[in-house]
Amino acid sequence: MKDLIEALQIIWKYLKNHDTYAPISCAHDVMYVCNVKVAEIDFDTIKHLYKLGFVPGYDEDISIIEDILGEDFDWDDLTKEDWDLIKNELDNCMYSYRFGSC
């Protein structure tokens, strides 16, 4: 629970509209936080959010990432250079399998 609260507090800073009524939704086993200015999140923060259980973009953005960085891409190995290449190509969303629910 602590990781979820910490992650949401960080993501909140990057919401397009802090007064958004319901930026969070769940579909199957995935929690989404939408209307996030993903490209504005710095590399170190993205790495930290990943450790907390959140991934930038939409879960279907993996095909975009693989087109740019290759099919062997792994978030654990993300570099600053990689982030600079993909951050403007991702949907304005963060998602988590860790905190998703059925």
Question: How does this structure look, described?
Answer:
The protein has one domain. Strand 1 (24-27) and strand 2 (30-34) form a beta hairpin. A four-stranded antiparallel β-sheet has the order 1-2-4-3, covered by helices on one side. Helix content is 35%, strand content 15%. By secondary structure, the protein is an alpha+beta fold. The protein starts with a helix and ends in a 6-residue tail after the last strand. The protein is globular, with a radius of gyration of 13 Å. The model has no long low-confidence stretch (mean pLDDT 94).
What descriptive keywords fit this protein?
102 residues, 35% helix, 4 helices, alpha+beta
* Poorly predicted runs of 5 or more residues: none
Helix-strand topology string: HEEHEHHE
Structural class: alpha+beta
Main sheet characteristics: 4 strands, antiparallel
Distance between the termini: 17 Å
Query: Radius of gyration over alpha carbons?
Result: 13 Å
Number of domains: 1
Fraction of residues in helix: 25-40%
Number of strands: 4
On the 0 to 100 scale, the average pLDDT is 94
Assign an overall shape. globular
Give the neighbour order of strands across the main sheet: 1-2-4-3
The number of helical segments is 4
Strand percentage lies at 5-15%
